[in-house]
Amino acid sequence: MTGNTKHIHRSGWRCPSNIALVKYWGKRDFQKPMNPSLSFVLRNAFTETSVELHKDGDKKVAYYFEGVESPFGERIENYLNHVSSQFTWINKYNFRIHSHNSFPHSAGIASSASSFGAMALCLTELDFMHSGRETDSFEFWQKASELARMGSGSACRSVYPGFSIWGETQLFESSSDYHAIPLLDGVHPVFSGLRDAILMVDSGTKEVSSSVGHRLMDDHHYQRSRIAQAHQNINELYLALLTGDLEKFIAVVENEALSLHAMMMTSNPSFLLLKPNSLELINRIRRFREKSQIPVCFTIDAGPNIHLLYFQENEPEVKAFIESELLAFCENGKWIDDRIGTRPERLNN
């Protein structure tokens, strides 16, 4: 950028990450899911991004992550080129983008979900400002979800509070492969106290990226069975959310976590992201549940780290269990204390 660059427009958003309970694995067309997914956003794990538009300068995208210019700017530039067919004004400006996460990049939390969620919210707000439309409208959030999907599939679920569904399902006529929809009504109050303890088994780079894993579903021997299973699990999980059926909630969530990794283990070529300590944590969580009769369960993303899900009323006992039995199997005793979150927030400065 040149020294006398004139500041034109600016937008800034804080967007949470999310954790899927029914997993999306496998893509079709461009960034559309092979099966529907259901997730909830986190409160403490978020990305803050600000976008400034400039008329002059010598670089299309200057992207700064935690104060340092980052090569991630190349991915953002490709993303902007793709969405410029919808927002023609994008071609008229250069972009200066600042972004940072509230969590370590390799924490087993989907940083691409919160990053592209925040980026999409900034672009949608700038577009609505250009055209004079109301930014706090249903149309605004849906557009942001659609734009987020184009950057990272799971990001489309991060723009809504609490629980959301992405992908066509018989449950809702409004469900779509193009954007997520929020589950705003009817969720049992017990789930407002949902907690997520992220147990850090390994913070290293994954041996196989999620994008490679998604592609391996194209010719997967169990593809059709997996799609059918996801549809059934989303129906059962939604019913559990409405009725407060914690036993069913636990059964579906753990079935989904292990099914995701079963798909990886049976793809061609196959791969294994779970570590010995991941399996030890799973076994200890299940033993604790049986012994204490406290409703706890685990979910896992495409990596080795374990998300221990529990409820607010059991917080003292579960945290004591984490300290006494689980931290020995975490990398340097690290874990992240999180919970179900709310919708993204606009940044004022």
Can you characterise this structure?
The structure is a single chain. The chain is of the alpha+beta class. It has a domain at 189-339: 2-Layer Sandwich (Alpha-Beta Plaits), CATH 3.30.70. It has eight helices and 14 strands. The chain has helices at 72-83, 111-131, 138-151, 210-215, 223-243, 246-265, 276-292, 315-326; strands spanning 7-22, 27-28, 32-33, 37-54, 61-65, 68-69, 94-101, 163-166, 180-182, 194-199, 297-300, 306-311, 335-339, 345-346. The strands form three sheets. Strands 1, 4, 5, 6, 7, 8, 9 and 14 form an eight-stranded mixed sheet that branches. Strands 11-12-10-13 form a four-stranded antiparallel sheet. A two-stranded antiparallel sheet has the order 2-3. Helix 2 packs across helix 3 and helix 5 runs antiparallel to helix 6. The longest helix has 21 residues, at 111-131. The radius of gyration is 20 Å and the shape is globular. The two termini are 21 Å apart. Residues 1-7 have low confidence and may be disordered.
Q: Which key phrases capture this entry?
A:
8-stranded mixed β-sheet; alpha+beta; 4-stranded antiparallel β-sheet; Alpha-Beta Plaits; disordered N terminus; 349 residues; globular; ATP binding
Radius of gyration: 20 Å
- The amount of helix comes to 25-40%
How many β-strand runs?
Answer: 14
Give the low-pLDDT segments.
1-7
- Could you tell me the CATH topology label of one domain: Alpha-Beta Plaits
Q: What is the CATH H-level superfamily of one domain?
A: GHMP kinase, C-terminal domain
Keywords: ATP-binding, Lipid biosynthesis, Lipid metabolism, Lyase, Nucleotide-binding
Protein name: Diphosphomevalonate decarboxylase
Pfam family, one: MVD-like_N
GO molecular function: ATP binding; carboxy-lyase activity
